Amino acid sequence: MVWLDLYHYWVFAILLMIGYFSVIAKRNLVKKLIGLSLFQSAVFLLYITMGKVDGGTAPIIGMTDKTDIFSNPLPQVLILTAIVVGISTTALGLSIVVRIKEAYGSIEEDVIHQKDQVE
Amino acid sequence: MNMIDHLPALQVIVPLISAPFCILMRNHMLAWAVAVVASGAAFSLAILSMGFVSDGATLTYAMGGWEAPYGIALEIDAFSALLTVIISGASLLALLAGAASARQQLVDEKQPLFFSAWLLALAGLLGITITADAFNIFVFMEISSLASYVIIAAGPHRKALGAVFKYLVMGTIGATFYLIGVGLIYMMTGTLNLEDIALRLNDVSDQRPIFVAAGFITIGLALKAAVFPLHVWMPNAYNYAPHIVSAFIAACATKVSLYVMMRFDFMVFQPNLVGHEFQFSYFFMPLALIAILSGAVVAALSRDLKRLLAWSSVSQIGYIVLGASLTTEAGLTSAIAHMFNHALAKGGGFLIAMGAALYYTTTRFSNLAGLGKEHPWIAAAFVVIGCSLIGVPGTAGFISKWLLVSAALEQGALGVLIISVVVLSSLLAVVYVWKVVELFYFAPRPEGGSSDVMQVRKPEMLLYMLVLGLVAGANIWFGIMPGEPLALAGQAAQALLGGSL
Amino acid sequence: MEPWIPFQYIPLIPLVGVVAILLGARVNDNVREAATLITALMTALAVWGFAPAVMEGQRFSVTLLDEVLPGIPLALQLEPLGAMFAILAGSLWVVNSVYSIGYMRGNKEKNQTRFYVFFAVSIAAALGIAFAGNAFTLFLFYECLTLSTYPLVSHKGDEKTIKSARIYLGVLISTSICLFLPAVIWVHSVSDGAFAAGGILSGVLSGPEVGLLLGLFVFGIGKAAVMPVHRWLPAAMVAPTPVSALLHAVAVVKAGVFSITKVVIYLFGVDFLFAQSTVGWMLYIAAFTIIVSSLVAIQQTNLKRMLAYSTIGQLSYVVLAVSVLTPLAEVGATLHMVAHAFGKITLFFAAGAIYVAAKKTELYQLAGIGRRMPWTAAAFTIGAISMIGVPPTGGFVSKWYILAGAFQSDNFVAIATLIVSTGLTATYFLPVVYSMWFGKEIEGPVANHGEAPMAMVIALTTTAALTLLFFFLHGPVKVMEQQVLLGAL
Q1: Is residue C73 classed as helix, strand or coil in its secondary structure?
Q2: How many of the other CB atoms lie within 10 Å of CB of B410?
Q3: Mean pLDDT throughout C346-360?
Q4: Cα–Cα distance between C260 and C210 in angstroms, integer?
Q5: Most buried of the four, B423, B440, C178, C409, by CB within 10 Å?
Q6: Residue B392 pLDDT > 80, yes or no?
Q7: CA angle C436, C440, C444 (to 5 degrees)
Q8: Could you tell me which of C480, C487, C55 has the C-alpha nearest to residue C271?
Q9: DSSP characters for C364-382?
């Protein structure tokens, strides 16, 4: 099955869509953030899997005796940065949710919207 | 190596290093002073580098001595130089003018933190414009975004929190889309340097992943740039941010995303992808036209000065996108020139809102009525800046409108449609600007006035008026002598279409 | 007279005057008014200084900024047409300043400093229009004039005034942005846009394009008040009368017809237009405007509104004369610009004098006022006769030339329009004049009033005298116009 050969792309796409769906559909702010995290994690997977070369090994100098096929290390390095960014975004998002809870007494979008309308 | 060679790196490093210093300053005045000095330094560096690139040269810098395409390269050409001037200038002027406003809206103890986040946002925005590395752009984009979420959330009204949350979610989705696109490109080319990508895309035989990447990158950046209909986060974020932040962010943040978008689409994709030019044009032109009209209509209906200005931004960003979507040199020149001119006008507009709020606490129309009688200079500055938003001749806004219409004339029948939309939206701009002018000059002051007016210190006020006068004057100056920014815009447009960095 | 200042600095004189007026206002009202008068005098002298040289055929031009936009300079030039417009605006400003002082004081208006300041700015913009050296510069100053007159129109600041001012600004800005600006950009995209004798568009444009571009200009220059873009002029009547007098009888509206004349002569070229088949509609539009505005004027009950509609009609005389496209008619167009300026400013002066002295604004109230205000009523009569075109007034001279021009090309539409409209003008002016002198006086808001303040009477007598004098001394204007046509035809 040619469609399943690159199964990791399917994992990426499905995970991405699950995350995206929860960001849009969930009315609870924390659930939205969880969705956002999933969304970003999907991209991490895309990067990490793309660096893998069939039969390749970790590119460490001095281990060349067994094989000369290496996996590409750069995407992993890149995604380390992206993971840090993801963590910061989630942390900042959560802290804003805390502030929203303090200000509105709720983290449900409908309730917040209602309270804004009342003003 | 002397200092000049390090100029591109210093441009980012100065505000980045100054940010922690801000926190160390326990006193809010000192923190403000550090922020001003750092922005001022960044601004002088930007002016300096503009001098170097104004004859068409580029400044390049290899980070850590690793040459491109292996290392991360920084490059300043005409386009990025113009953007760095806009960004650092907006930051400097907003800070100078906003000392009193910051005191009014922020708790004193929080101010060092606030200004350090401000400098991080500044460093991020500057970083985006000078780096030549696709992934590095993402990193700087996130630095600037995270920092701007923080400073926008500092707004005193609780609605600021909801606005920031929305901004955060949409901004992150946009950045992640961009990341996906870069990943796909890396997969096909194995490089992240923009110039190198453009080169190697030539040899890619299977173009489908590249098309997908182009889609992801364009949409992701359009989201961050608040291109219609992805603008929903923007009006509230601008509206509820502290006034000092609105003046800074509204002048430059979305333009930086547009900058990256134009870089990618014109330098990387168009020379290599068959039919990309038309897709770009057909995709963005209708959106830009709708944005121009709908933004202006909502602005004309709003009853709050900051809200009005925010929606006018939706319309004005439409002008920039419209110019770019013509995909001609004239069109791009008008788009890039409008980035500069709109930064002047919109930054100035939010400065007016800031000053008005100093005296009347909010920017709601009911509060601002009759402002012209008590503060004639602020009202007069608004007339000048409003004229620039409309595009009255003799102001900066007119120059970009003229360029846009001239560029549209080259398009034949389609041009007539474009011109009629531009003309119609100018009329709407007259409506929303004049609504405020009449309000300032003819409406009677509301009874009693506002009670909790803050004490404004003399030097702060003097500084504010100076900056406001400078910005209003600049709107006229660059309407009569637009030479320098126009030359840079022309060069940038040429470089974009030339297909090389 | 000798030129004593380079002509490109003349528009700066009123701007320097602004500073003087602002400083003077700090001392007291008399100093401020003196500053206004001196500025007006200096401006008039400066423009008069160029009259002999221009009449001898000298031309002056200067580029202020090389490149405002790529390839487009900010350029000024002094040619006969512009010089005449500048002389007209500059000289009448002096008379008008005298009048303003009487009016503003007699009426105890508020914000007088603001009034004088923006008046001076408007004059500076009008001079800029007069000296414009290319289409872009013309447009720049045209918009400046629109904006700087807005504070004058909305001077009173009450709700009705603001509404009218909104119409004023709305119509003028929207026509200029929608039509004038695209036309200017179009011209600059196909040529260098510089005004030159004989026109520059011949051979560049052809067929329907010419008609379209001309249409953009004629309707885009809303200040010429060609129907249907005339609505702003009656709306502008809410302004204080000196504004209506100088700006809405002379500077602003003349800037409109002047711009159209300049565009026709220096951009299109009379010969070029004459050969076109797609420009004939301009004549019909002008004729339509003349007839309809006269009909509307007959129905008016308010003096200033009647004068406004009369102005609309008289402006279209100029447009009509221009579109006849024969040499004599072009001379007539220029003469009419001047003659109508003298006549209409007199009429407005009279209207303002009546308002200040008697607080009367409606036509029926004017009955018998001639006995209390003989000078004013006499001036009004002279103005009215000039509007109708009866000798010995300036209005007769210009009508004569326009008619002669129409006969040159057997243009019977124009001839018929002129004859019919003369009748209509008489219909709405003569009853007013008759009732002023012979009607039975009606009790007004002010019981036992006499003449208006001295300053106003001096001003309106002067302009009435000019109206009469112009009948005999219109030679120089003719010479100047022929200078224009020498190049053009």
Answers
A1: strand
A2: 14
A3: 89
A4: 14
A5: B440
A6: yes
A7: 80
A8: C487
A9: GGGTTHHHH-HHHHHHHHH
Amino acid found at C351: A
pLDDT band at C177, cuts 50/70/90? confident
pTM equals: 0.85
What are the residues of chain B with a beta carbon less than 8 Å away from any beta carbon of chain C?
Answer: 387, 390-394, 399, 402-403, 405-406, 409, 419, 423-424, 426-427, 430, 434, 438, 441-442, 480-483, 486, 490
Task: Using alpha carbons, list the distances in angstroms from residue B289 to B276, B335, B337, B424.
Answer: 20, 14, 18, 11
Residue C262: both structure tokens together: 């300049």
pLDDT, tens only, B299-333: 999 999 999 999 999 999 999 999 999 888 899 99
Handedness of CA B374, B376, B380, B381 (dihedral sign): negative
Tell me phi and psi for residue C57, to 5 degrees.
105, 5
Residue B1, exposed/middle/buried by CB under 10 A (0-12, 13-18, 19+)? Answer: exposed
A43 CB near a chain B CB, below 8 Å? yes
Q: What is the pLDDT of residues C387-414, one digit of tens each?
A: 998 888 888 988 998 999 898 888 888 9
> If you ran DSSP here, which 8-state letter would residue C157 be given?
-
Mind telling me how many Å the CA of B304 is from chain C's nearest CA? Answer: 21
The C-alpha atoms of residue B250 and residue B332 are separated, in whole angstroms, by 21
DSSP H helices, A1-119, are 2-5, 7-25, 29-50, 74-104, 109-118
DSSP C461: H
Q: How many CB atoms lie within 10 A of CB C23?
A: 12
CA distance A84 to A89: 9
Which own/partner pairs from B33-38 qualify as long-range (CB within 8 Å, at least 24 positions apart)?
B34/B115, B35/B95, B35/B115, B35/B118, B35/B119, B36/B92, B36/B95, B36/B96, B38/B14, B38/B119, B38/B122
* CB-CB under 8 Å, C139 with B405: no
Closest CA to C87 of C97, C77, C78, C100: C78
Chain C meets chain A (3+ C-beta pairs below 8 A): no
Tokens of C338: 């001047």
ipTM above 0.90 for this complex: yes
Quick one: which H or E segment has residue C331? helix C327-358
Q: How far apart are the C-alpha atoms of C175 and C223, rounded to whole Å?
A: 9
